[in-house]
Structures are given as structure tokens and as C-alpha cells.
């Protein structure tokens, strides 16, 4: 059987098997399928079709006497060709709006609440990354005296987002020179992307040589990689929903439970995968099912990711969960929350 040439009755049986397995987590038998759904075929016919689907690699079975379960290829065919169009019901949209009503403008809180909402909607592990600043354009830089040896650098980017970092000037500095240094730095750096600043800052400010400016300029140059960094460490991503995920029947198996806990504790694998797939899909929703992931530790899971944007700055949001998931609803949830985040940050 050519997977690309499935007949309508084969598509119908495959859809029933996958939807029933998603619902119950139990292998699906031909008799049960024919009886429960009243699909107009005898159990023997359903059994033959399921055998054909198994030969095509779309279904499998955990052991000889069991019913069928979807394979990774079967899930992929279902997602690409059979499932309903992703769309959230009004009750979920109302839930999202009610959860966001009390939000303030703290970036950390916004991301935590967003991740929590996504996990609640999907019962999966939710992931949200902080915005990556590599393509951010510096609008303005301010130097604020905190003490005789500390300066607060306030960075404003074009989208209006602000980030701060404190510089320690152990040798002290001339407080009267701060405004002049601030003006010179803005003249040379405003309008450039963070990447451009990191690559060219030494050349751009090399002629700021006045002795009273040197202590601040020297520390500023030493800290450029930190001030204008992309944000990619695991402390800059939020993962929530462990409790929701562990209610899934898959994790009654102690090996699978240990596997997902290991993943949660070592976020680098998840973060690397998310970043790589968001970059590859350039704004489109990314759906990776089981063995489609090159990372073996992710082969038991499906991962859905979408980018959110704040002007030139972007982050990512997504879910990780067992391959047995409500794909249409989960994809709609991820896309909706990505759009919600973009709207909140662009207000």
C-alpha cells in the first residue's frame, strides 16, 4: 500500500484508530472499533484494513495479541492530512483572557503566566523562552550612577523593551563625565543591532581617549558581550506543567517517568531543540513527532513550537508531551499563546 494513495476507508480507519488511542491510551482492536463507532464495516473488514495500514508502517502493535497503535509515520499522516483544522473553542479563548486580565508589565511574570496557561490548556509540559536580542536594534543607552563604584546601564531597544545591567568600576569614575560618555556611546551605537555592536564597538569608540572617560569605557568594553548578548542560557527559559504532564498514563511506566524527569532537570536539550527548530521554520509552527527528532532522548515525545515576535526581537513558545496528544487542539493552543505574547509585548 502506498501511503500517498490511501483510500477513503483506509483514511477513515486510521483516523478512528488514532483518535481512539489518543483518548484511551490503549491499543485499539478491530471488533471494538467496528462496534463502538458504527463505521459500516464488519470487524473482519476493519481487521484487514488495519493489517494493510500496519504493513504500510502507519500502525503497529505492542505485542502479537494486542490491538493496534499509531506509529510515528501514522501520526505524521494524521497531522498532515486527517485531523481537524487547529482551532480553539470559545471556552479556551475565554480562559486565556481571564488569566491574562490581572497581568502587569513584568516580563518575567508575563512569561511564567503564559507558560502556565499553555500547560493548563494542553496538559503537556510548556516551554517559553525569553526574547533573543541578537537582531534587536539599540534605540537608546543610559548610564545611571548607582554608587561611587557602580553604574547602571539601561538599554532600550526599538520595540520599547528595556534591559539593565550593573557595571562595577573598581577604580571609581568621574561622575560629571557620565552624561558625556552616554552621549558619545549613543552617537556611535544607537541604530545598530546587538550583533553589530558586539562586532564593531571597539573600533567605533577607540577615539574616546580622554583620561576621565577611561575607567568607564574600559569596563564598558569588557562587558559588551554581556550587555548586548542574545539571551540563550537555561536560566532564560521557563518550563512549567510537570504536574499536568505526569497525570498522563504513559508515565505509570517508571522508565518513561525517569526519562521525562531527566529531561526536565536538564533543560539544555529542550532549549537547544526549541531554538534550532524555531530558526529552521522561520515563523511557522513546528511539529516534530517522535523519531523525527535527531535527539534520541526526545524520540518518545512530540514537540510543537511557535515563534513570538516583539519588533525585531523574537522568542519561542511550545509544548512537549507524549506522542499520544490532541494535535489539532494542542497546535491551536501553541499558536494562540504565541500570538497572545506578541500582542502583550507590542502594546
What descriptive keywords fit this protein?
347 residues; alpha+beta; 18% strand
Question: How would you describe this protein?
Answer:
The chain is of the alpha+beta class. The chain is 47% helix and 18% strand. The chain has helices at residues 8-24, 30-37, 43-55, 72-82, 90-100, 107-122, 178-189, 194-204, 214-222, 224-227, 242-245, 254-265, 267-281, 327-345, and strands at 59-60, 69-70, 125-129, 138-147, 150-157, 162-168, 237-240, 286-289, 301-310, 313-322. The protein is elongated, with a radius of gyration of 26 Å.
Report the end-to-end length measured between terminal Cα atoms: 53 Å
Q: Pairing-aware structural class of the strands and helices?
A: alpha+beta
Low-confidence stretches: none
Mean pLDDT, as a whole number?
A: 87
Helix content: 40-55%
Strand order of the largest sheet: 7-3-10-9-8
Describe the sheet with the most strands.
Answer: 5 strands, antiparallel
* Order of helix and strand elements from N to C terminus: HHHEEHHHEEEEHHHHEHHHEEEH
The total beta strand count reads 10
Shape by Cα distribution = elongated
- Taking all Cα atoms into account, the compactness measure Rg is 26 Å
Strand content: 15-25%
Q: Count of helical segments?
A: 14
Amino acid at each position: 500500500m502506498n501511503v500517498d494513495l490511501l483510500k477513503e476507508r483506509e483514511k477513515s480507519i486510521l483516523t478512528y484508530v488514532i483518535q481512539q488511542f489518543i483518548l484511551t491510551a490503549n491499543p485499539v482492536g478491530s471488533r471494538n472499533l467496528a462496534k463502538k463507532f458504527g463505521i459500516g464495516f464488519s470487524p473482519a473488514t476493519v481487521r484487514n484494513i488495519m493489517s494493510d495500514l500496519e504493513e504500510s508502517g502507519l500502525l503497529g502493535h505492542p505485542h502479537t495479541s494486542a490491538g493496534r497503535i499509531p506509529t510515528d509515520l501514522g501520526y505524521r499522516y494524521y497531522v498532515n492530512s486527517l485531523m481537524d483544522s487547529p482551532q480553539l473553542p470559545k471556552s479556551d479563548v475565554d480562559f486565556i483572557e481571564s488569566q491574562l486580565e490581572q497581568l502587569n508589565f513584568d516580563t518575567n511574570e508575563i512569561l511564567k503566566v503564559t507558560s502556565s496557561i499553555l500547560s493548563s490548556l494542553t496538559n503537556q509540559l510548556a516551554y517559553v523562552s525569553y526574547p533573543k536580542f541578537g537582531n534587536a536594534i539599540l534605540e537608546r543607552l543610559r548610564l545611571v550612577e548607582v554608587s561611587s563604584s557602580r553604574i547602571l546601564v539601561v538599554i532600550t531597544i526599538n520595540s520599547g523593551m528595556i534591559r539593565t545591567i550593573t557595571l562595577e568600576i573598581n577604580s571609581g569614575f568621574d561622575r560629571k563625565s557620565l552624561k558625556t560618555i552616554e552621549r558619545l556611546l549613543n552617537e556611535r551605537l544607537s541604530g545598530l543591532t546587538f550583533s553589530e555592536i558586539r562586532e564593531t564597538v571597539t573600533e567605533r569608540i577607540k577615539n574616546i581617549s580622554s583620561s576621565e572617560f577611561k575607567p568607564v569605557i574600559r569596563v564598558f568594553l569588557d562587558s559588551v558581550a554581556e550587555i548586548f548578548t542574545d539571551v540563550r542560557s537555561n536560566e532564560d527559559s521557563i518550563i512549567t506543567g510537570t504536574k499536568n504532564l505526569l497525570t498522563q498514563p504513559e508515565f505509570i511506566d517508571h522508565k518513561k517517568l525517569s526519562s521525562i524527569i531527566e529531561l526536565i532537570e536538564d533543560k539544555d536539550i529542550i532549549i537547544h531543540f526549541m531554538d534550532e527548530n524555531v530558526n529552521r521554520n522561520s515563523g511557522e509552527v513546528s511539529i516534530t513527532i517522535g523519531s523525527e527528532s535527531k535527539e534520541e532522548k526526545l524520540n518518545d515525545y512530540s514537540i510543537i513550537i511557535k515563534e513570538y515576535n516583539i519588533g525585531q526581537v523574537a522568542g519561542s513558545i511550545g509544548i512537549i508531551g507524549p506522542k499520544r496528544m490532541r494535535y489539532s487542539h494542542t497546535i491551536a493552543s501553541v499558536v494562540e499563546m504565541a500570538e497572545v505574547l506578541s500582542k502583550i509585548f507590542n502594546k
